Hints:
It is a single chain. The protein is mainly α. It is 63% helix and 5% strand. The protein is built from 21 helices and four strands. It has a four-stranded antiparallel beta sheet with strand order 2-3-1-4. Strand 2 and strand 3 (207-215) form a beta hairpin. Helix 10 (276-291) packs antiparallel against helix 21 and helix 20 runs antiparallel to helix 21 (508-553). The protein is extended, with a radius of gyration of 34 Å. It starts with a strand and ends in a 16-residue tail after the last helix.
Amino acid sequence: MIVPMKHLTLLCVADAGEKTLAALRDLGCVHVDLSGASSAAFAAARGELAEAERAVRILSKAAAEAKGGASVAADGRFDSVRNADLVAAVLAADAERQAAAEEAEALRQTVRAYEPYGDFDPALAQSLLDRGVDLSSVCTLPDPLPRERLSATRARLAAAQAKVASLAAALASANGRAGAILAAYPGLNDRIAFAAARDALATQGAVSWIEGWIPAESVPRLRAQAVTRGWGLLLRDAEPGENPPTLIRPPRLFRPVAALFQGLGIAPAYSEADVSVPFMCYFSVFFAMLVGDGAYGAIFLAATLFGWWKTRPKGEGHRPRIIRSWLTMLTVFSFATVVWGVLSNTWFGAGIPACADWPTVKWLADPSYGNMMLLCFTIGASHLMLARIWNGICKAPDPTCLAEFGWAGVLLLMYLVTNAIVKIFPAVPAWGFWVGGVSIALVFLFTVRPSELKTRGAELGMLPLNIMSALGDIISYVRLFAVGLASVKVAENFNAMATGLVSAEHALWLNALLAVAMVAILLIGHGLNLAMAGLSILVHAVRLNTLEFSNHKGVTWAGYAYRPFRKNA
C-alpha cells in the first residue's frame, strides 16, 4: 500500500530553531523539502562533499595508473597526514602534480623547439651578436634565442617529470586510505541536509516554522515530542493538486521490490496505486524468459548466494536493509530462471538428452514457435487485464468501473485477434466478437460521465485508436520470446564454434592448443551473452511493467520517494 501522509506545519520559538531541527532530525520521520537551499553554509557543505568525492576519484585513478606504469617509490608525504586532513592533502598534491605536469609539457616543447640547434650558450651568442659578430657563416641560431642552455632545460624537464612521478606514486600509495574519506560521506551528507533544513526554516518575529510531510502512523510520536518541547503543530490531509512524497509498504513477502524502484529512480504518485505485488511477480517471469537459460540462472544464483555469504553479519551487526532487499530479489529472479531452464531444458544453449521428452520441453520446443508466442500473448493479456480489473474493483460502485471492466473485455478480444493474426488460432471465435462488442459499448457509455462530455468528450473520439493501441500492447509481449530465443541462439552458435575446433584428424598437440581456444571462445561467448541478458532485462522487463502495464493501470510514476530528514552517519 501507499502509506497515508499528513501535511505538517511545525512552529517553534525562533531562538530554538536549530535545536528544533536537531530534534526533528533525531525523530527521523518528517519529509522536508530541501531542494530550495541556497545559503552559504549549504554551499560550503556541498563543496566539502564534492571535494571528498574528487579526492577519492584522484586516488583511485592514481592507483589504476600505477598498476600499468613503471614502479616509482612514494615519498611518504601522506604517512603523517590525519584522516581529517586527508582530502586537503590529496587535493594539494594533485594540484602540485598538475602544475608539475604542465611545467614538464612546456619544457618538453622548448626542448623540441631548440634541439636542432644543439647545446650552445645563449648568453655567449647574444654577447657576440651585440658586438656585431656575424655568426651565420659558423652556425645557425634560432630566433629568438633561448633563455638557457639546452642541457639546463633538459635537466629541469627531468626534474619536473621526476616530481610528477613521485607525486603520482604518493597518491597511488594513499589509495588504501580512501576508505577513511568514504566513511565520512554520510556525515557530510548529514551536514548538507541540516544546512538545507535551516534554509527551509522560516522566521517572522519570535516565531519560526517549517513545513513538510509525515506518515499518519508517525503522528503520535511527533505529538509526544511537541508536548515535551513546546512545539505547535498544524496537521492536515493532502489537498487537491498537492503531491506528497510516496512511501510504499508492500506486503512483507514483496517488500524487496521497493529497492528495485529506488534503483530505477521511480515512484508512483501519492494518489496512484502501489503495484509492487504484480510488478515483482511478473518481473520474475520476464527475467526468467529474457535470460532464457537455466545455467545462466544458476550462475546468477551462485553469485547471489556468494553475496549473502559475503555480507553476512559479523558479531552483533546486521545487513543493511537495501542490501538484504537486493539479495532477496536476485535470489527470486535467479531461481525463476533456473526453473525456466528446467521447463525448457536449456542449459548453456544446449539440452540434457534425458529431459528431451518432458511434456513442458516438447511443448515449448514447438518448431513453429506457436506455443511460445501463445505463452507470451497469454502473459501479456493477463498482465494488462489484471490492471483493468483492478481499476474496476477500485472504482466500484461508481458507474465508471464498468468502463474498466469493458477494457478488460477489449483486451481479451485483442488477445484472440493477435493469436488469429499469427495463425495460432484458426480464427477469432464467435463468442469473442460478442464479448468485444459488449465491452466496447461499456467503454463508450461509461468512460465519461454525461456532465463531463464538454470537457472530456474528445476521449470518446480517440476510442478506435486506443483499441488499436491495446492490440499493440499485447503484441509487444512477444519480445519475451524473441529476446529469449536470440539469447539461446547466440549460445548455440558459440557452442558450435567452440566444439568444431577439436577434431580426431588433428595432431594431439594441435588439439591441445585448440582446446584452449575452445575454452576461451566459450567463456567470451557466454560472458557476452550474460551481459546482453542483463541489458535486455533493464530494457524489456522494466518497460513491460512501467509502460504497458502502468498505462492500463493508470500509474504515471510521477511521484517522488519519501525521504525523511534524519541522520545517516
